[in-house]
C-alpha cells in the first residue's frame, strides 16, 4: 500500500468525524484531555487502562495500540478516534486494513514473517498453523496477499477472530443509565445533585477534623455549640444519626439537612420534634417539654436584640409553667405526653419553634455547607448570624477574618431586596410601612459618623486597639494547638466576637455597616436608579488591604499577607470583620483570593484585656543549604575530618577550615506575639515534618554572627524580642547528629551567644562531633559521678599518673578527661567541644574512629579501663597464680581472689567502681563444684527478649454475627497449624473448620497454609473464617453410580472430571488453601450454554469454598468505549463462601445475605410511629436480595467464563436451586445502586468486637519488667549447652555443666548495664522492653551470695594491701589477664574491695558491704544513659543529678533542667547508682609530700592532633 505517514491514513479523520455523534466526539475529546501528556499524546499504558480496560490482555492491547498508529512517543487524538471508529463502526475491509497495520512494518508496506510470529507469540502465547499458509511463497507479504489470506483464515489469530468473526460488544456510546449516588440521593430528598456534591466535600472536611476519624458527637458538638445550646446538642446529633451507630454518615447528613431546611414546614417541625424526643418513644413527656422550652427560650433570647427582649412576651416565662400549659392545652388523649401530631398543632400559633428552625437553617448553610437557594435567603442567614454575634465580646483565641469594605458593600447591595418607587414612596417589594414613612433597606450600607476622626469613635477598631464587649469575663488562655493553618486555632467554645459596629441593634430586619454613609446626593441618585438590578459580586478581593508581596518564598502560615502600614486601616471604612464560619461560607460561594485571618490575643499592655491582633509578626525562616555527603573516613586520621567538613591532607600537613554553611530564606511565617517558642516548634514539626529533637531555632541579629538560641520554650515571641521581618534560622541536625552551626563555630574558633552565658556548674553540654552522642552520654554519666569528679577537679589525678604502665595510655586518657571535667564544672560555658578527648580515644581505640554510631557501654568500659590503667598505683605488677577453690570456704577464696586483684590493680576507679562476682560451675558427670571470684566494674543484666510475636486475628462466624478480634501470643518459629489450635481454644471452633485469610483492603492477599511459618503482617489484616463441618463421603452403591451417569448423559456433555486442586500460592501468586492436609481433589462440572460457555479447567479453584468480593459500579462522566462507562470498584471486606458439591446458587445468595445483613441498615423502630425524613430512600429492599452474584477472575473486574473480547464484567449466577458446582473461585457481589447508596453502612465494614484476649496479649507484649526481674535472671542457674562444654579438673575432660553467678561484693558506685542489644538467631536485635527501676533506695542485697558464718579463729589471716607497694618483677600480660567464666559479665582485671584484711583500713571498712540487719545496702540513682531508636542508629541522651539536687537532661550540646517525671526511663540503657551513707572523702588519696606530674602530652602526639584538625 506504499509508505504512509500514519498507519490509519487510509481512513481520513474527516470520515471519522462524520460517523461519530457530536456527543461522542465531545466526550472523547474531554476524556483525551484528562489523560494526555503536555505534548498531546497518549502513552501505551494509558491506552490499555483508559481505552480498553484492565480486562484486555497486555499483549493484545499493545498490538491494538500499534495498529492505531501508536509509537514510543505516544498516540495522537486523531489516530485514536480513527481507530475507535474502525473498531466499533468500521466495515470488514477497514478492519482488515487495521489488522494489516498491526503486523506491518513502520512503512505500512509489508508484513514480515519473523515480526508477525513475534507479535502473535507475545500477544497470544502460541502461533496458529494458519500462519504457515501466509508465508508459503515468501517471508514477507503485501496487503493484497494478506487480505486474501485473512478472509480465508479469519480465525487465524485471536485478533482476527475478534474483529472479523465475533459480534462487536463495545460501542462509542452506552445508553444504559445506572443512577449515580447523587441522583439516587437527590431523588429521595429535597436537595439538588449540585447541593449533594458540595455537601459531600464539606462532609469529608468535617470528618477529617475529627480525632476519631468519624463524624461523631464530639466533632458535631464542636461545630454547632455555640450557637446551639449544649443541652440539646446530643439530641440534635441523634436526630441526624438515624441508625443510632454514634456517628453521622453522609447519607444521614444529607437527609437531615433536607428535612430541617428544604422540606415543607410540617416536615421541618417533625425534625424538631425528633430533636426534643430524647428517649425516642414518639412522645414528649413533661420533663422533655421543660427541656425543650428551656432550649427554645435561650435560643430566642440569643437571637433577638437585647433592647427588644424587655418587650418580648417570652422573656420572663418559666419553662415549667409553659410546659404545663402545653400539656393542658394540647394533650388531647390526657396521657401526660405530647404526641407528634399534638406538637405540630402547638407549633401553628407559637413562634418559639420557628426561632429554632431559623437557627438550624443557619447551621446547615454556614456550618455544614448547604448553599442558599436565593440571594435574599443568603442575606437573611448571614444577617441573623452576625446579629447574634454582635451581642458577644471578644474572647482570646478567636479568629476573625477581614473583608475589604468595597466588596462587603457590593455584597450587601446584592443580597438586599430591591427597593422600588411606588407612587412616590419607597417599596421593598413586600409593602412594609412604618408610620406612613418608607422603611429602610433590609441591609443598609453604612451609618452617619458621629465624630470627626475615626479614632474618636469607639465603634471602630484601630491597629491593635482594645475592643470591649458587654461580657466581663474573657477566656485568657491561648489555644496551645498549632495544627491549624491560622495559628493559633480558634477556641472550640467561643465562636464569635462583638460586631455591634457591623449591625444595628435596634433594627432586627437589617444590617447596619459601620462605614460612613454615602453623601445625600449619591444616596438620592441611587434611589432614582431603581431599574438597575444589583450585580452579583465577584470573588472576594482583599488585595487593597495588604502590601504587595514580591517574594517568591512560600509562607507556612495562612495569614494571607501583611496589612498595609502606609495608611491607617479603619474598620467600617477600609474593612469589615466576620467570624470564621461566615468567611468560609462566603469564600465557598463566591471564591476568595486572599484570606486575612486575625487572632484575638490577651494584651499585656492593657491589663490582659482581649484585643484583635491586626499586625502579627512576620519572620523569615532560614535554612542551611544542603551540602554533599562527605565520604566515610578510612583511618583514625579521618576522625577530625568529619567535624564540620574539615579537609584533611596528611601528605602536605595542611588542613583547611570547613566552609561556612550557607543560609537561604526557605519560608516565611507569621506568628502572634503571644505564641510561645514551644508552639512554634510544634507548628514547624507538623508543617515541615521535622522531628523535634532534630531542629533548633536561632534568632539572628543585625549582624549574621550575632545569634541567640531560642531554647526556653515557655517564652513568647514578644518576650524573645522577635520583631517584624526578623530572621530565624531553622538549624537541622546533620545525619551524623552534628549541628551545622556548632561545627562552623568550632571551625572558626568562635562561640555562639548560647555558650557565652554563665551556667550552673556541671550543667554544660558536649558538642556532637559526628555521631558522638554515644561518647557524650557516657562522659556525662561519669562526669556526674561526684566523688570521681571531685578527684579530678582537685587535680589529684596529677599525683597518680602512671606513664610506665604497659596496659595504660601513658596517662593521656586521664589527662584529657581531667581537662574536660574541669571545663564542664567551671560554670563558664553552656557547651564544650570534647575534641581532644575524642582524638585521644581514637588514638588508642581505633574502633571508635569514624562517624558511625557505637555502643555507649563499650565506650564507657574503655574509658573506665583507660582511667584505671593511667591512674594505677601499682607501677610494677606482680605475677599472681590463680588457685582453685578446692573445697575451701567461700569467704577465704573470695578474700584471696580480691587480694590478688588488689596486688595488681589499685586506683580511684577500683575503689569506686569495682565489685566482685561469685561464679560456680558444677560438673554434670561427677558433681564437682568449682568456685571462682572475679572482679567486675559493671553488671550487665540480660533482658528477656521478645521471643513471642503478638497476633491479632479477626474471626468471622457462619451466623453472620459481628466479627470478634482475638489476641494470641506465639513463639516466633510457630506455624499456622499451631495458631489454629490456639485460636480454636479461644473460639471453640474446631481447627479443621478454620480458614486463615490475609486481607489487604477489599482483596484477598494470601491464604496461608498450615505448614507455613507465622509472620507479622505488613499492611494486611489476618482474618479467620469459620467453615461448616466436613461431611464424610460415603461410598456410592452400584445403583447410585449408574443413576448418576445416566443423569449426566441426559443433561448433555459436560467437562467431567476436572480436578479442582489447590496449588502452591508462591508458584502462581494465587491465593490458595486446602482444608485437608492431603489436599484431596474434588470434582465439579459446568453445563455449557450459548450464553455461558463452559469454563476452562482452572488451577485457581479452591476446595470447599469460594471467595466473594464486594463490588460497585462507578459511573464515569467521560469515556472512550461503552465498556468503560461503568467501571467496577471493590470495597468492603471479602467473604468466604462455603461451597461443596451439592451447594446450590440459592445457598450462596442466602449465605452472602447472612453475612451482609448486619451491614444493611433496617428501618429504625420509631419509623412505625413517625415518618422518617428519608423513609422512601430504599426501594431496592423490596427485592429478594439487594445484590447479584457474578463469576469473576481473581482481580474481581472481569468475567471468569467469557473471553476478554466480550468485555464482560462477570456472568450472573442466577438465584435458583441449580447446583453451583464450583463455577468459579471468585464471585463479585454486585450491589444494587439504591441499596448501596442509601442503606449500606460503610462504617460497619471494619466493625468488630475486641475479645479479652486482645488486651491481655497486648499487655503481655508491652508489660514492663522490674530491675529485680533482671537481677533474678542474672543470678539464676543456667545449663551450659553442647557448644559450651566445661573442662572438669576432676574428670580431666570437657563435660556438660551448670553455671551460676552471684554478687559477692558491691562497689560504692554500682553501674548497671541493661543488655538491650543481643545476638539472637544469627542477627543482632534490640529489646525495647521497659524496665522499671528505683530512683531512690535501691537495695540489691537480696542478690548477694549467702555467707557461711565462721569464727574469727577459722579465718585466714590476711594483710591489707590498699596502701602497700610491691616491687616484684611481673610479666607483661595483656589487659584482662585474669580469666573469666563469663566474658560478658566480668571485665578482666578491674575489681575492687580491700576486704581481705585482718585489720582493715578505713577504705576497706567502708566497702566490706556484707549485709546486716543493722546496716542495709541502699543506692540512689545518680545518672543514666538512654538509647532511643534502632540498632546501629538511634540517639543517646544522659540524665544526671547535680550536687544541687536537681536533675538535668544532657542531649549533646543541650542541657536542660528536668524533673524525674520528665526523664525517659523507658529507654534506660546504663544506670549509675551511688551508695548511701558513705563518706567518699576517705577514697581520696593522701598526696602530702608528693609532687604532681605536670608534664604535658608529648609534642609528637600534639602535632598529630594539629595535623588532623586546625581550628582557625
Q: What does it look like?
A:
This protein has 1512 residues and is α+β, with helices and mostly antiparallel strands. Helices cover 30% and strands 16% of the residues. It is built from 43 helices and 48 strands. The strands form 14 sheets. Strands 23-40-48-44-45-46-47 form a seven-stranded mixed beta sheet, with helices on both faces. A six-stranded mixed beta sheet has the order 10-15-14-18-16-17, with no helix packed on it. Strands 27-26-28-24-25-34 form a six-stranded mixed beta sheet. β16 and β17 form a beta hairpin. It starts with 12 loop residues before the first helix and ends with a helix.
Q: Which class do the helix and strand fractions yield?
A: alpha+beta
- Cross-sheet strand order for the largest sheet: 23-40-48-44-45-46-47
Mean pLDDT: 75
Q: How many individual helices?
A: 43
Could you give the count of β-strands? 48
Give the strand content. 15-25%
Helix content: 25-40%
Spatial gap, N to C terminus: 80 Å
Low-confidence residue ranges: 419-530, 631-657, 751-755, 1052-1099, 1163-1182, 1350-1359, 1363-1400, 1408-1414, 1507-1512
For the report, how would you describe the main beta sheet? 7 strands, mixed
Query: What overall form do the CA principal axes indicate?
Result: globular
Concise structural overview:
With 1512 residues, this protein is α+β, with helices and mostly antiparallel strands.
List strands and helices in order, with pairings.
Elements: H1 13-19, H2 22-35, H3 44-52, H4 58-67, H5 77-89, H6 92-103, E1 111-112, H7 113-124, H8 130-134, E2 140-141, H9 143-152, H10 158-164, H11 181-188, H12 193-208, H13 217-224, H14 233-240, H15 250-262, H16 265-276, E3 283-284, H17 286-302, H18 306-309, H19 319-330, E4 338-339, H20 340-348, H21 352-367, H22 375-389, E5 399-404, H23 405-415, E6 420-422, E7 425-427, E8 433-434, E9 437-438, H24 520-528, E10 554-555, E11 575-579, H25 580-590, E12 597-602, E13 610-613, E14 617-624, E15 663-671, H26 677-688, E16 695-700, E17 707-709, E18 726-732, H27 740-747, E19 765-766, H28 773-783, H29 786-793, H30 812-824, E20 831-832, H31 835-844, H32 856-870, H33 890-904, H34 908-913, E21 915-923, E22 929-936, E23 939-942, E24 948-956, E25 964-971, H35 976-987, E26 994-1000, E27 1003-1006, E28 1021-1026, H36 1038-1051, H37 1065-1068, E29 1105-1115, E30 1126-1138, H38 1145-1156, E31 1187-1192, E32 1211-1213, E33 1226-1231, H39 1233-1238, E34 1249-1250, H40 1252-1262, E35 1265-1266, H41 1267-1274, E36 1278-1279, E37 1286-1288, E38 1293-1295, E39 1297-1305, ...
Parallel strand pairs: 10-15, 14-18, 19-20, 23-40, 24-28, 25-34, 29-33, 35-43
Antiparallel strand pairs: 1-2, 3-4, 5-11, 5-12, 6-7, 8-9, 12-13, 14-15, 16-17, 16-18, 21-22, 21-39, 24-25, 26-27, 26-28, 29-30, 31-32, 31-33, 36-39, 37-38, 40-48, 41-42, 44-45, 44-48, 45-46, 46-47
Helix pairs in contact: 1-5, 3-4, 4-6, 4-7, 6-9, 6-10, 11-12, 14-16, 15-16, 16-20, 17-19, 17-21, 21-22, 28-32, 30-31, 30-32
Amino acid at each position: 500500500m506504499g509508505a504512509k505517514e500514519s498507519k490509519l491514513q487510509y481512513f481520513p479523520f474527516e470520515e471519522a468525524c462524520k460517523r461519530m455523534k457530536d456527543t461522542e466526539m465531545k466526550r472523547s475529546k474531554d476524556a483525551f484531555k484528562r489523560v494526555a501528556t503536555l505534548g498531546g499524546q497518549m502513552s501505551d499504558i494509558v491506552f490499555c487502562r483508559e481505552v480498553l480496560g484492565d480486562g484486555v490482555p497486555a499483549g493484545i492491547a499493545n498490538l491494538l495500540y500499534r495498529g492505531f498508529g501508536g509509537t514510543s512517543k505516544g498516540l495522537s487524538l486523531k489516530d485514536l478516534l480513527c481507530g475507535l471508529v474502525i473498531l466499533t463502526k468500521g466495515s470488514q475491509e477497514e478492519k482488515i486494513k487495521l489488522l494489516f497495520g498491526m503486523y506491518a512494518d513502520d512503512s505500512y508496506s509489508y508484513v514480515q514473517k519473523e515480526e508477525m510470529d513475534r507479535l502473535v507469540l507475545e500477544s497470544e502465547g502460541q502461533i496458529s498453523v494458519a500462519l504457515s499458509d501466509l508465508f508459503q511463497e515468501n517471508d514477507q507479504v503485501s496487503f493484497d496477499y494478506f487480505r486474501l489470506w485473512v478472509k480465508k483464515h479469519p480465525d487465524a489469530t485471536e485478533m482476527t477472530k475478534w474483529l472479523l468473526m465475533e459480534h462487536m460488544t463495545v460501542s462509542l456510546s452506552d445508553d444504559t443509565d445506572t443512577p449515580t449516588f447523587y441522583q439516587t440521593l437527590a431523588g429521595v430528598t429535597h436537595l439538588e445533585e449540585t447541593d449533594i456534591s458540595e455537601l459531600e466535600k464539606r462532609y469529608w472536611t468535617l470528618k477529617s477534623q475529627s480525632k476519631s476519624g468519624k463524624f461523631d458527637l464530639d466533632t458535631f458538638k464542636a461545630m454547632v455549640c455555640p450557637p446551639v445550646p449544649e443541652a440539646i446538642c446530643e439530641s440534635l446529633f441523634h436526630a441526624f444519626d438515624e441508625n443510632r451507630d454514634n456517628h453521622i454518615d453522609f447519607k444521614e447528613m444529607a437527609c437531615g439537612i433536607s428535612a430541617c431546611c428544604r422540606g415543607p414546614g410540617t416536615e421541618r417541625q417533625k425534625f424538631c420534634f425528633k430533636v426534643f424526643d430524647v428517649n425516642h418513644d414518639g412522645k414528649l413527656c413533661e420533663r422533655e417539654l421543660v427541656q425543650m422550652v428551656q432550649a427554645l427560650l435561650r435560643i430566642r433570647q440569643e437571637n433577638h436584640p437585647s433592647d427588644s427582649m424587655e418587650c418580648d412576651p417570652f422573656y420572663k416565662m418559666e419553662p415549667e409553667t409553659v410546659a404545663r400549659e402545653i400539656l393542658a392545652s394540647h394533650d388531647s388523649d390526657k396521657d401526660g405526653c405530647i404526641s407528634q401530631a399534638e406538637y405540630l398543632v402547638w407549633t401553628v400559633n407559637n413562634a418559639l419553634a420557628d426561632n429554632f428552625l431559623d437557627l438550624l437553617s443557619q447551621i446547615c448553610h454556614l456550618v455544614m455547607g448547604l448553599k442558599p437557594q436565593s440571594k435574599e435567603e443568603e442575606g437573611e442567614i448571614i444577617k441573623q448570624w452576625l446579629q447574634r454575634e454582635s451581642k458577644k465580646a471578644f474572647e482570646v483565641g478567636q479568629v476573625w477574618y477581614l473583608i475589604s469594605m468595597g466588596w462587603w458593600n457590593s455584597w450587601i447591595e446584592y443580597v438586599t431586596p430591591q427597593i422600588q418607587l411606588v407612587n412616590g414612596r419607597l417599596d421593598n417589594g413586600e409593602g412594609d410601612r412604618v408610620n406612613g414613612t418608607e422603611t429602610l433597606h433590609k441591609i443598609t450600607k453604612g451609618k452617619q459618623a458621629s465624630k470627626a476622626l475615626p479614632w474618636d469613635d469607639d465603634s471602630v477598631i484601630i491597629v491593635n486597639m482594645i475592643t470591649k464587649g458587654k461580657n466581663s469575663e474573657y477566656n485568657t488562655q491561648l489555644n496551645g494547638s498549632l495544627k491549624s493553618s491560622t495559628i493559633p486555632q480558634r477556641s472550640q467554645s467561643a465562636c464569635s466576637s462583638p460586631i455591634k459596629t457591623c449591625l444595628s441593634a435596634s433594627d432586627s430586619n437589617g444590617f447596619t455597616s459601620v462605614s460612613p454613609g454615602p453623601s445625600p446626593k449619591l444616596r438620592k441618585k441611587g434611589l432614582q436608579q431603581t431599574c438597575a438590578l444589583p450585580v452579583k459580586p465577584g470573588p472576594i478581593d482583599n488585595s487593597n488591604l495588604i502590601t504587595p508581596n514580591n517574594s517568591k518564598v512560600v509562607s507556612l502560615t495562612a495569614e494571607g499577607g501583611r496589612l498595609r502600614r502606609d495608611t491607617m486601616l479603619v474598620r467600617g471604612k477600609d474593612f469589615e470583620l466576620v467570624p470564621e464560619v461566615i468567611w468560609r461560607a462566603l469564600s465557598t460561594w463566591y471564591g476568595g483570593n486572599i484570606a486575612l485571618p486575625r487572632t484575638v490575643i490577651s494584651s499585656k499592655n492593657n491589663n490582659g484585656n482581649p484585643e484583635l491582633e491586626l499586625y502579627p509578626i512576620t519572620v523569615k525562616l532560614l535554612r542551611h543549604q544542603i551540602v554533599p555527603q562527605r565520604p566515610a573516613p578510612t583511618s583514625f586520621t579521618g576522625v577530625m575530618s568529619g567535624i564540620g567538613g574539615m579537609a584533611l591532607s596528611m601528605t602536605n600537613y595542611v588542613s583547611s577550615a570547613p566552609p561556612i554553611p550557607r543560609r537561604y530564606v526557605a519560608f516565611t511565617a507569621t506568628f502572634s506575639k503571644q505564641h510561645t517558642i514551644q508552639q512554634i516548634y510544634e507548628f514547624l514539626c507538623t508543617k515541615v515534618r521535622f522531628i523535634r529533637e532534630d531542629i533548633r531555632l536561632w534568632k539572628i541579629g543585625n549582624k549574621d554572627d550575632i545569634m541567640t538560641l531560642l531554647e526556653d520554650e515557655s517564652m513568647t515571641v514578644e518576650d524573645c524580642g522577635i520583631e517584624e521581618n526578623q530572621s530565624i534560622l531553622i538549624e537541622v541536625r546533620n545525619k551524623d547528629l552534628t549541628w551545622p552551626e556548632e561545627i562552623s563555630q568550632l571551625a572558626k574558633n568562635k562561640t555562639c551567644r548560647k555558650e557565652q552565658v554563665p551556667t550552673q556548674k556541671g550543667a554544660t553540654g558536649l558538642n556532637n562531633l559526628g555521631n558522638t552522642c554515644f561518647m557524650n552520654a557516657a562522659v556525662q554519666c561519669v562526669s556526674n559521678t561526684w566523688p570521681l569528679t571531685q578527684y579530678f577537679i582537685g587535680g589529684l589525678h596529677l599525683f597518680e599518673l602512671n606513664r610506665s604502665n604497659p596496659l595504660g595510655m601513658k596517662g593521656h586518657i586521664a589527662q584529657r578527661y581531667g581537662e574536660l571535667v574541669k571545663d564542664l564544672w567551671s560554670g563558664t560555658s553552656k557547651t564544650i567541644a570534647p575534641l581532644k578527648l575524642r582524638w585521644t580515644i581514637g588514638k588508642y581505640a581505633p574502633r571508635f574512629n569514624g562517624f558511625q554510631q557505637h555502643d555507649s557501654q563499650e565506650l564507657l568500659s574503655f574509658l573506665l579501663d583507660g582511667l584505671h590503667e593511667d591512674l594505677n598505683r601499682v607501677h610494677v605488677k606482680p605475677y599472681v597464680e590463680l588457685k582453685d577453690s578446692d573445697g575451701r570456704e567461700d569467704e577465704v577464696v573470695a578474700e584471696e581472689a580480691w587480694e590478688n586483684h588488689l596486688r595488681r590493680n589499685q586506683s580511684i576507679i577500683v575503689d569506686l567502681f569495682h565489685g566482685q562476682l561469685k561464679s560456680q560451675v558444677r560438673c554434670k558427670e561427677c558433681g564437682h563444684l568449682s568456685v571462682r571470684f572475679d572482679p567486675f566494674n559493671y553488671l550487665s543484666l540480660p533482658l528477656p527478649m521478645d521471643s513471642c510475636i503478638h497476633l491479632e486475628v479477626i474471626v468471622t462466624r457462619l451466623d453472620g454475627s459481628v466479627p470478634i478480634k482475638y489476641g494470641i501470643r506465639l513463639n516466633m518459629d510457630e506455624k499456622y497449624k499451631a495458631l489454629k489450635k490456639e485460636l480454636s481454644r479461644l473460639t471453640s471452633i474446631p481447627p479443621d473448620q478454620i480458614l486463615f485469610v490475609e486481607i489487604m483492603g477489599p482483596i484477598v492477599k494470601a491464604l496461608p497454609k498450615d505448614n507455613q511459618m507465622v509472620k507479622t503482617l505488613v499492611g494486611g489484616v489476618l482474618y479467620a473464617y469459620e467453615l461448616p463441618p466436613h461431611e464424610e463421603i460415603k461410598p456410592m452403591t452400584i445403583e447410585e453410580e449408574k443413576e448418576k451417569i445416566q443423569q449426566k448423559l441426559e443433561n448433555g456433555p459436560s467437562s467431567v472430571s476436572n480436578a479442582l486442586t489447590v496449588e502452591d500460592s508462591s508458584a502462581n501468586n494465587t491465593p490458595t488453601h486446602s482444608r485437608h492436609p492431603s489436599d484431596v481433589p474434588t470434582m465439579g462440572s459446568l453445563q455449557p450454554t450459548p450464553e455461558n460457555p463452559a469454563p476452562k479447567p482452572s488451577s485457581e479453584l479452591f476446595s470447599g469454598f469460594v471467595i466473594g468480593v464486594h463490588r460497585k459500579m462507578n459511573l464515569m462522566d467521560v469515556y472512550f468505549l461503552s465498556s468503560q462507562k461503568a467501571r467496577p470498584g471493590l470495597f468492603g471486606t471479602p467473604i468466604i463462601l462455603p461451597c461443596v458439591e451439592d451447594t446450590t446458587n440459592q445457598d450462596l445468595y442466602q449465605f452472602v445475605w447472612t453475612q451482609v445483613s448486619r451491614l444493611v441498615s433496617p428501618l429504625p423502630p420509631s419509623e412505625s410511629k413517625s415518618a422518617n425524613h428519608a423513609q422512601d430512600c430504599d426501594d431496592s429492599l423490596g427485592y429478594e436480595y439487594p445484590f447479584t452474584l457474578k463469576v469473576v477472575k481473581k482481580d474481581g473486574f472481569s468475567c471468569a467464563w467469557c473471553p476478554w473480547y466480550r468485555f464482560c464484567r462477570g456472568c450472573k449466577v442466577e438465584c435458583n436451586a441449580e447446583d453451583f458446582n464450583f463455577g468459579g473461585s471468585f464471585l463479585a457481589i454486585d450491589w444494587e445502586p439504591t441499596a448501596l447508596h442509601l442503606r449500606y453502612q460503610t462504617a460497619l465494614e471494619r466493625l468488630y468486637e475486641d475479645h479479652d484476649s486482645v488486651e491481655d496479649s497486648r499487655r503481655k507484649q508491652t508489660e514492663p519488667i522490674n530491675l529485680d526481674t533482671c537481677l533474678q535472671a542474672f543470678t539464676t542457674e543456667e545449663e551450659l549447652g553442647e557448644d559450651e562444654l566445661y573442662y572438669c579438673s576432676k574428670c580431666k575432660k570437657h563435660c556438660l555443666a551448670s553455671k551460676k553467678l552471684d554478687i559477692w561484693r558491691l562497689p560504692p558506685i554500682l553501674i548497671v548495664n541493661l543488655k538491650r542489644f543481643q545476638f539472637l538467631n544469627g542477627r543482632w536485635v534490640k529489646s525495647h522492653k521497659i524496665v522499671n527501676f528505683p530512683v531512690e533506695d535501691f537495695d540489691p542485697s537480696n542478690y548477694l551470695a549467702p555467707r557461711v558464718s565462721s569464727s574469727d579463729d577459722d579465718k585466714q589471716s590476711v594483710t591489707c594491701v590498699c596502701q602497700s607497694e610491691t616491687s616484684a618483677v611481673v610479666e607483661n600480660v595483656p589487659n584482662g589477664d585474669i580469666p573469666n567464666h563469663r566474658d560478658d559479665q566480668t571485665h578482666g582485671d578491674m575489681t575492687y574491695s580491700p576486704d581481705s584484711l585482718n585489720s582493715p583500713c578505713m577504705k576497706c571498712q567502708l566497702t566490706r558491704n556484707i549485709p546486716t540487719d543493722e546496716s542495709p545496702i541502699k543506692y540512689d540513682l545518680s545518672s543514666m544513659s538512654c538509647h532511643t531508636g534502632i540498632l546501629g542508629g538511634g540517639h543517646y541522651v544522659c540524665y544526671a543529678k547535680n550536687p544541687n539536687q536537681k536533675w538535668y537532661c544532657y542531649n549533646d550540646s543541650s542541657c536542660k533542667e528536668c524533673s524525674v517525671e520528665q526523664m525517659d526511663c523507658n529507654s534506660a540503657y546504663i544506670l549509675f547508682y551511688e551508695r548511701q551513707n558513705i563518706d567518699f572523702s576517705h577514697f581520696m588519696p593522701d598526696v602530702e609530700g608528693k609532687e604532681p606530674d605536670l608534664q604535658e602530652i608529648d609534642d609528637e602526639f600534639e602535632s598529630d592532633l594539629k595535623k588532623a584538625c586546625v581550628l582557625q
